[in-house]
Amino acid sequence: MTAVVYYTASTLDGFLADEHDSLDWLLGQDMDHEGPMGYGEFIAGVGALVMGATTYRWVLEHGRRTGEPWGYTQPCFVFTHRDLPAPEGVRLVSGSVAEHWPAIAEAAGEGDVWVVGGGELAGAFWDTGHLDRLMVSTAPVTVGAGRPLLPRRLQLTLTRLERNRAFACAWYDVAGPGDRETWPPAGPRDLDEEHDAVR
Ligand SMILES: NC(=O)c1ccc[n+]([C@@H]2O[C@H](COP(=O)([O-])OP(=O)(O)OC[C@H]3O[C@@H](n4cnc5c(N)ncnc54)[C@H](OP(=O)(O)O)[C@@H]3O)[C@@H](O)[C@H]2O)c1
């Protein structure tokens, strides 16, 4: 059955990229691509990809700089308001995740849906109940500010944890819809009141 997986690398302080959309913090890190959370094994199970416009433009620009062709054989849905160049297999879409979900699921077939990023798009999948799993490889680096990994409050279950050279690789299941009722805790906290209670 298709699972929707947010597979990504992150800094230790929870960013996908720095404030200038640079991935320099990531590209020099040591990883065994055949090891835990390696790309080859992961991509083999992917039936369709989704990504936001900034991520897509980074991939296109990277291809232009390195001469590497578009690297995905699976259909790729790019959420954007822009008229961007689109190689074969790329569909530019705008609007809500819910609106495009039937086409994404159909394109994925028996494979998984890879939410490439960014974080807000992954959050939009969660908002609509279409995020099943996170696979996050965390690099031993902080950047202080940048593009957030997942700007939501989620309750997750850690299902597996491995080291891949420089990276801490963690697999999480997104908790079931029932947990949304208890997380986040209702209402803002009154810190003065809590302080008085423990005095
Ligand atoms: N560490 C990693 O492994 C990793 C993984 C993925 C991404 N990244 C990096 O992280 C950064 C992510 O950038 P980001 O936070 O800006 O997120 P993003 O999702 O890549 O791009 C956000 C943009 O996508 C478009 N968009 C998103 N949702 C839309 C919708 N529902 N309808 C229409 N358009 C929509 C909008 O752009 P327009 O309105 O301009 O079209 C929006 O500003 C990038 O630098 C990327 O390279 C890193």
From TrEMBL:
Q: Which InterPro entries match?
A: DHFR-like_dom_sf, RibDG_C, Riboflavin_Biosynth_HTPR
Do you know which Pfam families this protein is assigned to? RibD_C
Disordered: annotated segments? 179-199
Could you tell me which SUPFAM superfamilies the record lists for this protein? Answer: Dihydrofolate reductase-like (SSF53597)
Q: Which segments constitute the Bacterial bifunctional deaminase-reductase C-terminal domain? A: 4-162
| Basic and acidic residues bias: start-end ranges | 189-199
By what name is this protein known?
A: Dihydrofolate reductase family protein
- Species name for this entry? Nocardioides nanhaiensis
